[in-house]
């Protein structure tokens, strides 16, 4: 950990907060995970740019974390630096008549509210997705027939040599739960612009309320989870296959296949990383044996 003193001095110079031995379970929606050696709270593009340069120069292992809504963190923790994007890096503003600019740490739901406030339609599907805009773009988040690839216009990112560059939507390789950012790993999203359309505010709100009610009624939002646990396999749906195999309610330790929505593995209380991995492994094996479909985990494993 010889880099720490230099890192802390850099953080202080950039006026960004940092913590040592920060529990990851406090920063993931699954409420699972050991301690990160260091967590830095990003407050600007300049802060992020300088930190990325530092990590690369010193060969320090790092991971960029948003709201932790698609993360399963190991109980052994993370021996490196977590760059936490959130409240301190969450600027949102209207640019032009129909474009919304936001920093990578902005809440997707807050971006949706900004769209509503300005009578802009196109982001209704994303209302209630519990992540940041940057995390959403990284995985091309989607729900109820919509995906971020439908509305993203441009994005800014930090390249491997620490420069901020711009990229157009056509060059982002956006597909089902993936993007060029997920594929290359060394392109760190800093900001983005969504291109929307003028709409009727009453209709936009009604659609957002409708989709939020669907989430509440069908998804186990009362329990910690990482959202949908398995990616949709070609030709079927993970939740359908899991239910057909009679796996609703299957439990290992504190982890359970939700009885409300079989596509979610939930933390019923005190679930460990090992509990979730053992449970999802059982689900994978049983579904493969009974249906021939091989389910792939959707959450990123952080270890």
Report on the architecture of this protein.
By secondary structure, the chain is of the alpha+beta class. The protein has three domains: 4-87, Uridine Diphospho-n-acetylenolpyruvylglucosamine Reductase, domain 2; 90-218, Uridine Diphospho-n-acetylenolpyruvylglucosamine Reductase, domain 3, CATH 3.30.465.10; 238-302, Uridine Diphospho-n-acetylenolpyruvylglucosamine Reductase, domain 1 (Alpha-Beta Complex), CATH 3.90.78.10. Helix content is 30%, strand content 25%. The strands form six sheets. Strands 6-7-13-11-12 form a five-stranded antiparallel beta sheet. It has a four-stranded mixed beta sheet with strand order 1-2-5-3, with helices on one face. α1 packs antiparallel against α2. It starts with a helix and ends with a strand. The mean pLDDT is 96.
